[in-house]
Amino acid sequence: MSVGIDEISFYTSNYFLDLKTLAQVQGTDPDKYYTGIGQEKMGMAAPDEDVVTMAANAALPLVEGNGRDQVSTLMFATETGIDQSKAAGIYVHRLLGLRDNCRVVEMKQACYSATAALQMACALVARKPDSKVLVIASDIARYDLDTPGEATQGCGAVAMMISANPRLVSIDPEVGNYTEDVMDFWRPNYRSTALVDGKYSTKIYLKALKKAWDHFREVSPLDFSDFSHFCYHLPFSRMAQKAHQQLVRHTKAGLSAEEQERQINKTLMYNRTIGNSYTASMYIGLTSLLENTDADLSGKRIGFFSYGSGCVGEFFSGTVVPGYRDALHLQRHRDMLAARQEISHDEYLQLYRNQIPDDGGEHRFDEGTTGHFRLAGISHHKREYVPR
Ligand code: HMG
Q: Which of 8, 131, 147, 166 lies 20 to 30 Å (CA to CA) from residue 290?
């Protein structure tokens, strides 16, 4: 029996800022963004959108397809938490109409926590093969204005149904891990934007990749040549290119630049126009690979490197299941991305400054999202989520 990802669906906001616009206002060469960091657009959440609405929007097509009654556990990964106590997934549980004996929990370790959720979900399914676990990762990446991180913002959510004998990707049990206590990127409770030591964070990411790979080689019989494609955590797409170049050097794989690029380029397509979605980003990258590769990927092995600042890195592997194309949501994803609305720099600043307030007051929010669920307001310290 194999265990892994049976279905995958993502959601991002209907608003985006083109990084050419940002570059123009800043007096920066747009190529710094388009080529230097490899990003073209960044998603901006609507005024009535948060990690809960994005998560429910990502997951709705999966529970409609699979039946609400089959989900035994919902794991919600985020680093944009809305409450120190209550799990954001409980709101999603209600919005999706899941059964009341479904377990719900929220997980955190920066961008890595979706992978922790995926691995734990696989373990639960292995123990009880007739169960399905819904893993959702949802985040809004926010940095201070006029900082190097500003161009790497974004937002998105991904939902994955984990099951026995999955239709998309089976996940192998061997994993390579690396953990180190570092301050490369963090967000203390009193801040709505992350603090980041940008250049250092990229160095630590690369170090964690090397260490996680070395550990993976100790526990798994697989070597570099067993993989046809690689999915990396995607804070910006150039990071994955640097990571892959480093792994090729480290493993002495001796691949040409074209071959290296072929192993990762289709994973980058969606993220280039969405931006960093923290926990969701690597899995949106996987969706991009499965949906945009013309060649049949059936039976091909994928290497995954998940990274969460602070830091935890994990290298693991999965194999694409024959017939996977029948389980994709390709057209819906492409339609959603094509229907997004470009915003001006002034509108971007307005959305940036009008983030959901945490002042404990009474609030109603203007309708902005085109998703199925929205945050209507906050009253008596309670968020009010409604269908649209
Ligand atoms: P920066 O200092 O503005 O950029 O910040 P730079 O000056 O280093 O330029 C970036 C690249 O553009 C360079 O290429 C330049 O040469 C090139 P490189 O040397 O790196 O190959 N460049 C140009 N290329 C073409 N035409 C031009 C041009 N000008 C320059 N005209 C930085 C870059 C990534 C540091 C910044 O965006 C940042 O701080 N981002 C946020 C932190 C981040 O994303 N870190 C990534 C690793 S940590 C991680 O992935 C975890 C995270 O997702 C959080 C979590 O785990 O929760 C962030």
A: 131
What letter represents residue 71's amino acid?
V
- Looking at residue 87, its amino acid is A
pTM score: 0.98
Spatial neighbors of 54 by CB under 8 A, at least 6 apart, are 11, 12, 13, 45, 138, 140, 155, 156, 157, 371
Nearest residue to 5 via CA among 138, 139, 119 = 119
pLDDT digits (tens, 9 = 90+) for 322-367: 999 999 999 999 999 999 999 999 999 999 998 898 899 999 999 9
Query: How far, in Å, from the CA of 158 to the mean position of ligand 1?
Result: 24
Ligand 1 centre and the CA of 385: distance in Å?
36
Coil, strand, or helix at residue 384?
A: strand
Q: Which CATH architecture has domain 3-387?
A: 3-Layer(aba) Sandwich (3.40)
CB of 63 closer than 6 A to ligand 1? no
The answer to whether 233 is a known catalytic residue is: yes
Please provide the DSSP assignment of 276-330 as one string.
--GGGHHHHHHHHHHHH--S--TT-EEEEEEEETTTEEEEEEEEEPTTGGGG--H
Give pLDDT, residue 355.
Answer: 86
Residues of the chain with pLDDT under 70: 65-66
The catalytic residue among 215, 229, 233, 329 is: 233
Q: Whose CA is nearest to atom 16 of ligand 1?
A: 36
The C-alpha atoms of residue 61 and residue 332 are separated, in whole angstroms, by 10
Structure tokens at 197: 């030591």
User: Residues 345, 241, 221, 168: is their CA dihedral positive or negative?
Assistant: positive
* 79 is a catalytic site residue: yes
Residue 22 near residue 141 (C-beta atoms within 8 A): no
How many Cα neighbours within 13 Å face the side chain of 267? 30
Residue identifier of the C-alpha nearest atom 21 of ligand 1: 36
User: Residue 205 in contact with residue 358, Cβ under 8 Å?
Assistant: no
Instruction: Find, among 208, 344, 280, 378, the residue nearest to 9 by Cα.
Output: 280
ipTM above 0.90, yes or no: yes
**Which has the closest alpha carbon to 212: 183, 241, 234, 243?**
243
The residue nearest atom 28 of ligand 1, judged by CA position, is 32
For 238, other C-beta atoms within 10 Å of its C-beta total: 18
